[in-house]
Amino acid sequence: MTATTHEGVLFGNRFARELPELAVPWQAEPAPAPRLLLLNEDLAGELGFEPAFLRSEDGVAVLLGTSVPEGATPVAQAYAGHQFGQYSPRLGDGRALLLGEVTDVRGQLHDIHLKGSGRTPFSRGGDGRAVLGPMLREFIVSEAMHALGIPTTRALAVIATGRHVQRDDIEPGAVLTRVASSHLRVGSFQYARATDDLELLRRLADHAIARHFPSAAGAEAPYLEFFEQVVAAQAKLVAQWMLVGFVHGVMNTDNMTISGETIDYGPCAFIDAFDPEAVFSSIDHRGRYAFRNQPPAAAWNLARFAEALLPLFAEDEAEAIALAERSVSAFGPAYEDAWNAGMRRKLGLDDEGDSEASDRLVAELLALLQKSGADYTSTFRALSAYVRGDRAPALAAFGEAAPSFRTWAQAWLALAPNAGAMDQVNPVYIPRNHLVEEALAAADADDLQPLADLLQVVTSPYDIRTGRERYAAGAPADFGDYRTFCGT
Ligand code: AMP
Ligand code: MG
Q: What's the total number of domains in the chain?
């Protein structure tokens, strides 16, 4: 790694150097009239950047990738992927580049990634560009996820490029500068495996182990241990999605990271009412990635990951398959444990208590939520109020199901739930679909204030702010069905 710093930040090109077979050196396209619209100053600070520098013309050029800092080697990453179950051997960064890695103030390595930076050898028919609305949307939702304590890529900046981009209409072009602990995906391993170059596959696994699961390197069977740690990370991640009501929407194997961070905020959305069948994506016709299908979808992706890693598990194929099957099957119990523990915390119950009783209470509550159509997020805050003796909000939330709720609550209160603990895990504010749309519509009309207001509440999601009641409420009755889009 080079020791040269750029404005105090150390840039490297570790991925490009260690895995040239998966990295096509490339350049970001120039932006005709760049305008920095959003800068995440906290994140900039964590990475060691001076916000004032990033706001300068030179800084914006770094955020766009049009000026390459010393030490960085921008590349388009190659990866494959199963998209809605269909295998594509060559996807790759069609409209993005890995600018390089930076070492943050604590010595941690992060990818600096540019989404919307122009055509690459992986663009196929696409224009390589991104448009403003979806990039602002990713900024809001990924930063909200981070504030909710859910592993995720982060958003450093959104820059309007000044270019007009053809979609259904002409849209303003934009680049999102994204930060991640890496952009290694299940699809990266599928690509490496398909080359039949076992040495490359091993090098990729070693790279991933060093970056994300260094303890696996010392294990007796390092690659199996690595795989199992990824299974555990994904199980925890998806449990967190389920607990907060997040529907990713496009869990293709190229959109599942090895680090266990949420990536690719295209068609994602949060549920309002609790609905296991919720699907928002306009292209997910069969509900493959419906809310309740997310855990099995993750397990399916991990099975594809295991297939890619097979030769590293054991020389004998039958033995490798047996090992892989055993390790994949750990997903279910790991997921259940994480989800059950999370649900107990949402209900203010400690882990020591009678878990059968609390699991039953959880199942009954979810059935009541579904039946009543109560808002998922706000009802959990109404429940802590209920514990404190303020009963009206919960009774109102359950409407006609209030009598059943009262009966349920009697059994729950008998377990002495901790209201204070509940308020630390049940958010007041999530990026609700109607609020996101409202903020994006205002941004489209050049008013960034609603977006700033929304960002403020969702990035401190557990703290009630007076005057912001509207942001805590469910969708208005006339909001209707919500549709989301990817590849926009
Ligand atoms: P995504 O839906 O963002 O996961 O993208 C799936 C694949 O399509 C990736 O290989 C992307 O790089 C590619 N892609 C999406 N949008 C574009 C675009 N506008 N131009 C070129 N490639 C794109
Ligand atoms: Mg993707």
A: 2
